[in-house]
Amino acid sequence: MAETEYSKCVFCGFCENTCPTLHSTGERGYGPRGRVRVVGLLLKGIVTPKTVEYLYTCLLCYACLKPCPAGVDIPKLVVAGRQLLTSKYKEQNSNNNLKAEMMRLERADA
Ligand code: SF4
Ligand code: SF4
């Protein structure tokens, strides 16, 4: 789903004028095009220090849908991005738990 919506975006920026969070912050990452880029990075497994903030400050208000010539459903993409992020952290967490358990067992063997 995320891949399909992401691939529709032509990065024209027509959506940016309508976004309340971009207006209030003046920072592109808080706008629809910025959020598309964030999800694009997530699809490549890249998380930046601002990924969570950019995705979780989206109001899912759909104001960016009308001006988009490509019909990108940004709220849907943002929700998919949040899910990608959650599964990435769950996977990381379970790997960390596994490592901790292995270390504990190694210590118990010694
Ligand atoms: S989401 Fe739509 S309007 Fe916004 S940059 Fe992509 S193609 Fe352009
Ligand atoms: S759905 Fe998100 S990105 Fe689109 S206009 Fe609303 S706050 Fe901005």
Defining key terms:
110 residues; mainly alpha; Fumarate Reductase Iron-sulfur Protein, Chain B, domain 2
Question: What are the SSEs and their pairings?
Answer:
Elements: H1 2-8, H2 20-25, H3 32-43, H4 51-56, H5 74-109
Helix pairs in contact: 3-5
The structure holds iron/sulfur cluster (2 copies).
CATH superfamily: Alpha-helical ferredoxin
In which range does the helix fraction lie? 55-70%
Query: What ligands does this structure carry?
Result: iron/sulfur cluster
How many helices? 5
Amino-to-carboxy terminus distance: 48 Å
Strand content: under 5%
Instruction: Report the average pLDDT across residues.
Output: 92
The number of domains is 1
* Helix and strand pattern: HHHHH
**Class inferred from helices and paired strands:** mainly alpha
Descriptive notes:
This protein is mainly α and 110 residues long. The chain has one domain (2-109): Orthogonal Bundle (Fumarate Reductase Iron-sulfur Protein, Chain B, domain 2), CATH 1.10.1060.10. It has 5 helices and no strands. The chain has helices at 2-8, 20-25, 32-43, 51-56, 74-109. Helix 3 (32-43) packs parallel to helix 5 (74-109). The longest helix is centred in the last third of the chain and has 36 residues, at 74-109. It is elongated and about 65 Å long. The chain starts with a helix and ends with a helix. The structure holds iron/sulfur cluster (2 copies).
Question: Can you summarize this structure?
Answer:
The protein has 110 residues and is mainly alpha-helical. It is built from five helices and no strands. It starts with a helix and ends with a helix.
